[in-house]
Amino acid sequence: MIKNNARRLFLLIFFLGPAVIVYTIFSVYPLLATMSLSTFTADQSGVRHFVGLDNYILLVIDKDWRDPFWNAFLNNIWFFIIHMLVQNPIGIAIAGLLSLPRLKFRATYRTLIFTPTMLSVVIIGFSWNLILSPLWGISEGFLKFLGLGSLFQPWLGLESSALITIGLISVWQFVGIPLMLIYAALLNVPSELVDAARIDGLSHLRIFFSVKLPLIAPTIGLVSILTFVGNFNAFDLVYSIKGALAGPNFSTDLLGTFFYRTFFGNQLQLGSPTMGATIATAMFLIILIGVCVYLYGIQRRLERHSF
Amino acid sequence: MKSKFSTGLIHIFLISYSLIAVLPILLVVMNSFKVRKAIFGTPLAFPTAETFSLVGYVKVLGNANIGFYFFNSMSVTLISMAAVLLFGAMAAWALAEYRFKGSDVLALFLSIGIMVPIRLGSISILNMMVSFDLVNTRLALILVYTAQGLPMAIFILSEFISQIPRDLRDAARCDGVPEIAIFFQVIAPLLRPAIATVAVFTVVPIWNDLWFPLLLAPGNDTQTITLGIQQFIGQYITDWNSVLAALSVAIIPVLLIYLIFSRQLISGLTAGAVK
Q: A116–B273: do the CB atoms touch at under 8 Å?
């Protein structure tokens, strides 16, 4: 329809220009600049020298860097596993129940269960900090009411349980995401298939596991990769509950808090932009590996059903 | 027919989980309206005539900055949202409508940001803002949030645009309507239902973000509500009335907006969700 080439070029620049420019300058360029910064080091006077991959070697070999890096990395893997084992199954189960035919109060349940997802991680972190605090005693009182008072511990304060507790708080907040995505996928399962299974005498439970679940496998894959990216980028919750030092004794340190501490420095060390950039690039590579595993390993094998 | 028994079990499970989701929030909001003694003495009770107190709120709202933090969050979020929607819709339209050499590559380039968090480039973003002299300005946050929200917005809006019947634009073209007017007068109004979906995926994270305010705009004049509350609580950590009131001040407006728009938000989520 558009005959004039110059006019066409003008239109493309007009429509695409703003988005491409803002996105390139403030998202893509900083990422590349960060990667490039990770190959430099600064001497005492602040002059930067090119050192190739030395910072990465430092990160995985030098004791002062290796230990906190692996600690944060392993904690992050635990954090991810907690989400995969608790958040996503609960999300799938609730989505399954909510998509049952003729369920009453469906919209009310959906609205209530999605509420925490809308709120700020910082606000959620502080709120749970108070609720689990032995000072307030609400959790202890609640457990006593259930006859389980002896089970109470200051979970957020103990090295053995702080990470799991923060993981579960995060699960509690974000269960709404898998819930909604899977609920939407379940609504798209053709009713003829479900009706046919009903006529064959299958129970709702069997239909869910044998008919619906295989059909929504691609959505479960998508939920998993979103969980992965979100978890390996997490920062706010640990920071708001535990501060940048991710205590006790770094037991709640994730890559995000490790990155922040390294870049800005803290009571224990000076900030280092170059090592911060190295950690950010390492996080990028970890996320990239996850996304590639998803795109080539998982998503390709799952047949996409379009209705 | 399902048996009454199993239906009952399903409702018990869903009610229990709904309570787990809402009670902790309710607990904080409820206790923020009580005197200190009642917060500790009867934390699970609603405030009564005797235990009711606004002492925490007086302190929080008396802190003149809170209103300012709200204004900062509002202006940053609304301007970012407008930019994300406008630039996102324009880009999505061009990618869908004008096939050109490299359009697939450009679409792929723009979609990298869906999977790769913009936070990883924070160090260079900070350096850049320092050299542009934009540190501690709302503009710095708006630029970063626009860049952060665009990839997802373009992805969602493309799905919506592909569902608009071709006849509409062809008819307009036959009438000699210029291309730019076709977008703004014919296409853009049709994208209104997509706003809710874009809002959930891009605007809510902007309002709730702590990272970039901490990094780019920690100054007192530019703090957002999330950062402001975080710092306020750090200062008054032992004053429970103030802490609970500060948390409620952050929770209540979001909760009200969410409850008013929850239908649209959730139907937007389920309609636009990736199938």
A: no
With bands split at pLDDT 50, 70 and 90, how would you rate the model's confidence at B271?
low
Structural contact between residues B162 and B92, judged by C-beta atoms closer than 8 angstroms: no
Q: What would the pLDDT profile of A138-193 be if each residue is shown by its tens digit?
A: 888 888 888 887 888 888 888 888 999 999 999 999 999 899 889 988 888 888 88
> Which chain A residues have a beta carbon less than 8 Å from that of B22?
112, 115
Q: Which residues contact B180 (CB under 8 A, 6 or more apart)?
A: A11, A14
Neighbours of B197 (CB within 10 A): 24
C-alpha distance from residue A169 to each of A158, A184, A192, A207 (Å): 15, 25, 39, 32
Query: How many domains does chain B contain in total?
Result: 2
Q: What is the DSSP letter of A150?
A: G
Containing domain of residue B174, as a range?
63-235
- Of A142-146, A175-179, A226-230, B207-211, the poorest mean pLDDT is in A142-146
Query: Which ipTM value was assigned to this complex?
Result: 0.88
Cβ burial, residue A169 (10 Å; 0-12/13-18/19+): buried
| Same domain, yes or no: B45 and B171 | no
Looking at the structure, do residues B8 and B117 belong to the same domain, yes or no?
A: no
Instruction: Note which residues in 64-123 of chain A have CB less than 8 A from chain B.
Output: 90, 94, 97-98, 100, 103-105, 107-116, 118-123
Measured between beta carbons, the chain A residues lying within 8 angstroms of B24 are: 116, 127-128, 131, 172
Per-domain residue ranges of chain A: 62-299
In a domain, B272, yes or no: no
Answer whether A215's CB lies under 8 Å from A305's CB. yes
| Same-domain status, B157 and B193 | yes
β-sheet bridge partners, residue A42 = A48
Q: Are residues B67 and B44 in the same domain?
A: no
**Spatial distance between the Cα atoms of B245 and B249, rounded to a whole number of angstroms:** 6
The model's confidence at residue A307, banded by pLDDT at 50, 70 and 90, is very low
* Same-domain check for residues B220 and B98: yes
CB contacts < 8 A (A, B): 256
Backbone angles phi, psi at A50, to 5 degrees: -75, 130
> Do B35 and B97 sit in the same domain of this protein?
no
CA end-to-end distance (rounded Å), chain A:
33
SS3 content of chain A, % helix, strand, coil (to 5): 70, 5, 25
Looking at the structure, do residues B47 and B181 belong to the same domain, yes or no? no
Contact B243 A11 (CB under 8 A): no
Residues B112 and B181 in one domain: yes
pTM, 2 dp? 0.89
In a domain, B158, yes or no: yes
Contact status of A158 with chain B (Cβ, < 8 Å): no
Note the CATH number of domain A62-299: 1.10.3720.10
- Distance from the Cα of B22 to chain A's closest Cα (Å) equals 6
Per-residue confidence (pLDDT) for residue A169, from 0 to 100:
94
pLDDT in tens, B244-268: 888 898 888 888 888 887 777 777 6
